[in-house]
Amino acid sequence: MLHVGQTVPSFELPDADMEMFNLASLRGKSHAVLFFYPRDDTPLCTMEAADFSDHESEFNQHHCVILGISRDDCLKHADFRDKHGLSIRLLSDVGAKVSKQFGVCHYKEVDGIKKLCVIRSTFVIDMHGVVRHALYDIHPRGHAAEVFQLVKELDRTCRSPKTQLSRSTIA
User: Which residue of 11, 137, 157, 161 is 20 to 30 Å from 18, comparing CA positions?
Assistant: First the structure.
């Protein structure tokens, strides 16, 4: 489980168009919101992804990229994106490697069979790769708005002259 103040593990995953995305490509350029969700095209997952998509331009204005991650494959992501008109980038973590690195998986017994499940979780990561907010077991209704407020504050703090001065003094 990742906590506030930790550096995020680097990873590379394919997106809905089967293009590889490397989280390290954002370092020094953009903040990131990573939201992990259980499955494409379920009611709550659709609500969450649509809400983030609807507000993606507002996040972008605050130098933030939104990334949705689930264990669905690239083709299922593409169908989900196209069916619901989603604009955010959806990453495929079929083997759950990244989900495990972020501590968002647990085993749940369903009909006597243990299944690996994803806990709906969101991470707000600054442009230096540090976790600024780790939200576990969230409810999607209103979640994008809550995360947007966190991103606005993060961007304001990171861009203030005092913060930039203290960072340059440390470096």
Answer: 137
The pLDDT of residue 160 is 62
Whether 158 is a known active-site residue: answer no
Helical residues (DSSP H) of the chain, grouped into ranges: 43-54, 56-61, 74-84, 97-101, 143-159, 161-170
CATH of domain 12-170: 3.40.30.10
One-letter amino acid for residue 133 of the chain:
H
Q: What is residue 171's predicted lDDT score, i.e. its pLDDT?
A: 34
* Amino acid letter, 132: R
Evaluate if residue 167 carries a pLDDT over 80: no
Specify the residue for token string 């980038």.
89
Across-strand partners of 15? 91
Domain ranges of the chain: 12-170
Residue 153 contacts by C-beta under 8 Å, 6 or more apart in sequence?
none
Would the pLDDT of 163 be above 60? no
* pLDDT reading at 62 higher than 60: yes
As a whole number, the mean pLDDT across the chain is 91
